[in-house]
Specification:
The chain is α/β, with parallel strands linked by helices. Helices cover 35% and strands 14% of the residues. The protein is built from 15 helices and 15 strands. A 7-stranded mixed sheet has the order 4-10-9-8-7-5-6, sandwiched between helices. Strands 1-2-3-13 form a 4-stranded mixed sheet. Helix 2 packs antiparallel against helix 11 and helix 12 packs parallel to helix 14. The protein is globular and about 55 Å long. The N and C termini lie far apart (55 Å).
């Protein structure tokens, strides 16, 4: 039933929460646990709640061309009225044309080694398929990942994601090998003139240790830009060196661009291009369809040929996803969203950096295109993560009708990842509101009572679990804990 129908009854926020508590698992957390926002519609860079209040969306991970863009909506609706299922029969010329046309346009944005598109319903499914391809092609089982990474909520991906296996039994599987994140803010070589080589040697040491213990390295999977970690950008040359070494060992490399691809970096269409490092397999997710459920694995014909025969027709693109995907690719070009991401990403990053000297809790500002992060700390000198303050700031931003997320390994990094249609006016509002809120938080009794330096209460020892040891899995036979690591226990 349409919302504008006279028979349509919109549930109140309280009614919706009651139904949610009754029917939805408690493991499915709300973005705002206190006073949650009930979003009922969206348009461009804005979300609207059930009272009609408009919020600027700075948490978008999927709607690159803007929420409910008329052309993507039109493409989906038109195709839904024609054909919605995959049909591999040669007589189905319309669907085949859409599939091929979409593949051709997607491949035209990529280097020549990418020749085949295998479609899925999500980015997680794409990463799962990429691991299957890597293992089939190389005949090797072991996987190398970056510490703190997360690659999707399916069983195999939980097994390889440090962000999850650190928290849940049985921990890290013996066939997963973890290399340190090349953190240019808190890492041991932050600011070092030869950081790329130093961090590569750390990664190589972890991989060599695994090989000495008879590991058979099949692949390396990582984001080219570490969004999950808090928009950490590797030092130039690091990714290329790791890719090269994995290939020397007979493995393949997989770039997870589910969040950072499709023009979001601003300077390039794909984030791996910003690192001058070309992967063997590329995985993509819902931004391909502007939120429509679609994912994709792009690779060479040789690697794609390692699929099992029974998978032959599993990874075709359904016609609705193809139509929406074509619309997204054409909008990216026609409406200059890449240029917008580049220019407004610079404006947002420079704006935050301009106010950083006035605020001791702004530890770092970093970004690439419209992927911008502000690292909230107790003091700039200690760099100690302050997730409590980040949480307060995110709620205060919500009260000013700007939605942000506080994430990263410690929950202290504020993400500003907007639809690419955001405007300069929006950016200036974000900077001004953020500046005001951070000033209030720094001077309020609330921030002092939560452990701001000089407070009599401080951060309790029980909160040390917020700052977990990096590179340490004592229960694992191939723990990488012998490598250099850093932690925040000593700062309590």
């Amino acid at each position: 039933m349409a919302m504008d129908s006279p028979d349509f009854v919109l549930l109140s926020s309280d009614q919706t929460l009651t139904l949610r508590e009754t029917h939805i698992s408690g493991a499915c957390k709300l973005h705002f646990g206190q006073k949650p926002v009930k979003i009922v519609r969206s348009e461009a860079q804005f979300l609207y709640d059930d009272t009609g209040q408009k919020y600027l969306d700075c948490t978008s991970r999927t709607t690159n061309v803007g929420h409910c863009h008329p052309e993507t909506v039109r493409a989906a609706c038109n195709q839904f009225m024609k054909l919605t299922v995959c049909n591999e029969h040669p007589s189905n010329k319309i669907e085949n044309r859409l599939d091929y046309e979409y593949c051709q346009e997607l491949l035209s944005t990529l280097p020549d080694n990418f020749q085949v598109c295998l479609f899925t319903n999500s980015g997680a499914e794409a990463n799962d398929l990429a691991l299957k391809l890597a293992r089939n092609y190389t005949g090797k089982n072991d996987v190398v990942v970056v510490d703190g990474s997360f690659h999707g909520a399916v069983n195999l991906l939980w097994d390889i994601s440090p962000k999850t296996f650190k928290q849940f039994h049985p921990g890290k599987p013996p066939w997963v090998h973890v290399v340190p994140c090349p953190d240019m803010y808190r890492g041991p070589y932050a600011g070092h003139p030869d950081a790329a080589e130093k961090y590569f040697q750390q990664a190589k040491a972890a991989i060599d240790l695994a090989v000495q213990r008879n590991a058979s390295i099949g692949c390396f999977l990582s984001e080219p830009v570490f969004i999950v970690h808090g928009v950490l950008i590797p030092p130039p040359g690091w990714l290329k060196r790791v890719y090269s070494y994995i290939r020397e060992l007979g493995g393949v490399v997989i770039a997870d661009e589910i969040q950072c691809g499709l023009g979001r970096s601003g300077s390039h269409f794909w984030a791996f291009q910003t690192q001058d490092a070309i992967p063997d397999i590329l995985t993509l997710g819902k931004p391909l369809g502007n939120g429509h459920p679609v994912g994709c694995v792009v690779t060479s014909k040789k690697i794609a040929a390692s699929l099992w025969p029974e998978d032959k027709s599993t990874y075709e693109c359904n016609p609705v996803a193809a139509e929406v995907g074509l619309a997204v690719l054409r909008l990216m070009q026609r409406e200059n969203f890449m240029e917008n991401s580049f220019l407004l990403g610079l404006e947002l990053t420079h704006g935050f950096k301009s106010i950083q000297p006035e605020h001791t809790i702004i530890g770092d500002v970093r970004g690439l295109g419209l992927m911008v992060a502000v690292d909230i700390v107790w003091t700039q000198e200690s760099k100690k993560p302050a997730p409590e303050l980040a949480e307060v700031i995110s709620y205060r931003m919500k009260d000013e009708y700007i939605l942000v997320a506080n994430e990263g390994e410690y929950g202290n990094v504020l993400f500003f990842i907007t639809p690419l249609c955001v405007t300069s006016k929006d950016i200036q509002v974000v900077i001004q509101v953020f500046h005001k809120i951070v000033t209030d938080v720094e001077t309020s009794n609330l921030s002092l009572s939560m452990g701001f330096p000089g407070s009599s209460s401080g951060v309790s020892s029980s909160s040390s679990s917020l700052y977990p040891m990096v590179q340490s899995w004592p229960e694992s036979d191939d723990s990488d804990s012998a490598l250099d690591s850093y932690n925040y226990h000593s700062m309590d």
